[in-house]
Structures are given as C-alpha cells and as structure tokens.
Write a structure and sequence with these properties.
The protein has 424 residues and is an alpha/beta fold. It is built from 13 helices and 18 strands. The chain is globular and about 70 Å long. The structure holds S-adenosylmethionine.
C-alpha cells in the first residue's frame, strides 16, 4: 500500500531534528542535482543511515528551491514540500508586516503560520508573534525557522480556538489548496473563500471579535489582515475594509484583506505593483474615476497590470495615462501619447487589421517578421495554435508583438512594439 503524503513528509524531516542530522544537513555543499547519486553513496559509506541521507539531501534540495522566496535565509531554514509552496515570499511578507508596524500593533497572532514565512517577517520587525498551526510537522518546522527570533512562540492548535484577547493584531493566510480529487498526491486551488481553511466567514467574524474587545462598539473591526486568492470578489467583502491586490513581476499573487486600523482611511481597494524598479501603488477611493470611455485605437496600446485590473482601477489608470478603452469589456487601453508607467506595459502601435491568417501571413512576410510575442484578450484564438499556423521563423528576424483582441466588436490584430524596444 502506498504511504500517505503526511508520513512521507514526516520521514523527510524527522531525522534532521536530531543534532547529528542537523549538523549533517548544514555541512552539505550547495545542492546540485547532478551530484545527488555520488553524494548519497559517499554519505552512506561514511556511516550515515539511508533515512538520514535521504532526508538531508531532500532538505538540501528544498533549501535551494527556497532561495527564490527567502534568499540566503533559506540556507538555514527547514521546509516541507507543501509548506514551501504555500509560504509567502519574504519581501512580500515584509510588506504585510510593515502594515502592522505602521498601525502601532505590538503583538500578532499568525493563525495557520505554515513554515513561518509571514511570522519571520513580523518577528523581524520586532513584533511579538504567536504562531499557531494545526499540523504537528509544520509546527516543528516553524519552530526551527523562528528560532532566531526570541519574541516568537509557536503552538500546535487551531485558529478556531484562538482567544482574541491574547494579541492586538491577527494575521491569517488560510490554506487555499485541497488534495486533488481521486489522487493521494497533488493539490487543486480553491477559489471559493468559504472552502479556504479557515473559511472567510470565520476570518471576518474574528476581525469583529478582535475589534469588539474592551467594549468597542458592536461591528468594530480589529487589526486583522488576511491573505486571500486574487480572484476574490470585492463586492462580497465588507465596505469598510481595504482589499489590496499585489503583483510581483507581472503575476498577481494575492489579495489581502486589511481590517480596522490596518485599512487606510477611505481606500476601498488598491493595487501594489512590484517590479524591478520597486513598488508602486494605486488606490480606489470614493472619488476615483469610473470606467474609462471607449474610443478609437491611438498610437499607443497599454496592457494594465493584473493587480490594477482586479482592484477595479482601470478608470484611475486610464486617467493617469490619458487613455481610453478599445472595448468596454476588454482591459486594454489606448492613447495618442506615450506615457511610461510601472502600472502598465506600453506598446507603440505599428498597424491594425481584421483577424485573418492569410492577411497576417502576408504582413509578416512583407515586413520580415519572424520573432513573435502573441497576446490576447477578448478572443477565442489560441496564441500557440496561431503561432503553429503562421510558422513565423521562415519570414525573417524582425520582432513584433501581435495583440489579438476585439475592436468595435470585430476580431482584430494589432501589430505593436514594446516601449523601450528599438522599434517603439
Ligand atoms: C497557506 S499556509 C500558511 C503559509 C504561511 N503564511 C507562510 O508564509 O509560511 C496555511 C496553513 O494554515 C494551516 N491551517 C489551515 N487551517 C487551519 C486551522 N483551522 N487552524 C490552524 N491552522 C490551520 C495549514 O496547516 C497551513 O500550514
């Protein structure tokens, strides 16, 4: 009978929790896949048990992978496969922690702390942290990872049993994955916030219980932050909270619910866009512009960052760019002037034509365009299928971006060059 994933995960950690195992792990050189077999044999020949060697090499691999999220800290941390997948990247966790610090919170309960990504950042800013998880192995791992921070305590327990009187702030990053149906391994993402563990209704109730401590008016929300999936519906959340969508290098990672003193006055939604040039924010307030008006294609096309779109900030971005939409239901913007913004990718428009494989083939041949980036919104055409049919490499070395979309109800192709490229 195959062993349960939880048993496998425990086997991959347990030998490392003993001093000899920990010492062996920390003595290993940087992980390289091609060295695993020879390293494994030499460690066994040196007298280490197969279980310890396997655990140490697995952990060494996870540490190498963990560097993407935790940088050099990963080299002294412990991970479980699932825990690493679900952990918040340290720079993002630092932004979460700053909110608590700016609001003057002194102690935070992290309910469902996982391997401790967010808890490390909170503790790193000097906050007292009570980290709780219901999974014993995860608690063991978080205990190791939080050891450098004396102001933390890690507990085995459930979020539902948390007493709001213990801390003046609460952070929750509910589990948003469930075992894939019909399989002992793999996971599927949960999109309904009531399926999260713990569910959104519990999170909101806890925000109220935290806010009502000490005799505050009924319905007052306390200093609670919770990470939700980016697809969460803003209209299903209370008016008075701030929901911030965060994107990192173009991918929308999360929507964070900020309650009570953690929400900024008058800000309903916001986008935090983090790229190579740093972090940029756009806020939705009661007086923010509404939906942008549709109009004709101009000399420039803008592809707004996903966080801006999710936060309902297309109108606010269009105002900044002096832009309009091509179609009220499609999130591309267009303008006559080039404006550089970290909140959108900009393109110089070279041509536009109705969608037709024959016309497009002729166009690419005529302009010797063989290097294509293909983007689409509001059309059923599949970029990879189109690329296969066009076989562009035969036409030459010129580069272009094809944007497949609908203009005034018609399937169209915009030929463009990214701002900053030699053609733009
Ligand atoms: C997404 S992970 C947290 C990741 C963490 N923020 C980090 O950065 O490492 C969610 C965690 O919540 C825990 N969990 C889920 N439901 C819980 C509950 N009701 N009480 C306590 N822990 C819970 C899971 O065991 C899991 O470790």
């Amino acid at each position: 009978m195959p062993s349960a994933p939880a048993d496998d995960a425990a086997r991959a950690i347990e030998p490392l929790l003993h001093p000899q195992g920990w010492a062996l792990l920390n003595s290993l050189p940087p992980y390289r896949e091609q060295d695993v077999l020879s390293r494994s044999s030499s460690l066994r020949e040196a007298g280490h048990s197969p279980e310890l060697v396997s655990a140490a090499l697995t952990q060494s691999r996870l540490r190498a992978r963990g560097e993407e999220k935790f940088g050099e800290f990963a080299r002294s941390m412990l991970f479980t496969e699932h825990g690493l997948e679900q952990a918040t990247r340290l720079p993002v966790a630092a932004l979460h922690a700053e909110r608590f610090q700016r609001a003057g919170v002194s102690a935070v309960a992290d309910l469902g702390c996982g391997i401790g990504g967010d808890a490390m950042a909170l503790a790193g800013l000097g906050l007292d942290v009570r980290a709780v998880d219901r999974d014993p192995l995860t608690v063991a791992v978080a205990t190791v990872n939080l050891r450098p921070f004396p102001s933390t305590a890690v507990h085995l327990g459930s979020a539902e049993d948390h007493d709001p009187a213990l801390t003046d702030g609460i952070w929750l990053d509910p589990a948003r994955r469930a075992p894939a149906r019909g399989s002992a391994r793999g996971a599927r993402r949960l999109h309904d916030p009531e399926e999260y563990e713990p569910p959104l209704s519990f999170v909101l109730d806890l925000a109220r219980r935290l806010g009502e401590r000490g005799g505050a008016a009924p319905g007052t929300l306390g200093a609670l932050g919770a990470k939700l999936g980016p697809a969460v519906d803003r209209s299903a959340l209370p008016e008075e909270v701030e929901v911030q969508w965060l994107s990192l290098h173009g991918s929308v990672l999360e929507a964070v619910l900020w309650c009570g003193p953690l929400a900024r006055e008058g800000v309903r939604s916001s986008a935090l866009v983090i790229g190579r040039e740093g972090a940029h924010r756009l806020d939705l307030r009661a007086d923010s512009p509404g939906d942008p008006v549709p109009g004709a294609l101009g000399d420039h096309l803008y592809e707004p960052d996903g966080a801006v779109i999710r936060a309902g900030l297309l109108g606010a971005l269009a105002e900044r760019l002096g832009a309009r939409t091509l179609d009220p239901t499609i999130a591309y913007l267009t303008a006559d002037r080039r404006v550089d913004s970290p909140l959108a990718r900009g393109y110089a428009v070279r041509d536009v034509m109705p969608f037709s494989i024959k016309a497009l083939t002729g166009y690419l041949r005529e302009h010797r365009i063989g290097v294509l980036e293909i983007k689409k919104r509001g059309t059923a055409v599949e970029p990879e299928e189109l690329r296969r049919r066009l076989r562009p490499r035969r036409f030459g070395d010129e580069a272009a971006t094809l944007v497949l979309t609908r203009i005034a109800g018609e399937q169209s192709v915009i030929v463009a060059s990214p701002h900053g490229s030699t053609r733009a």
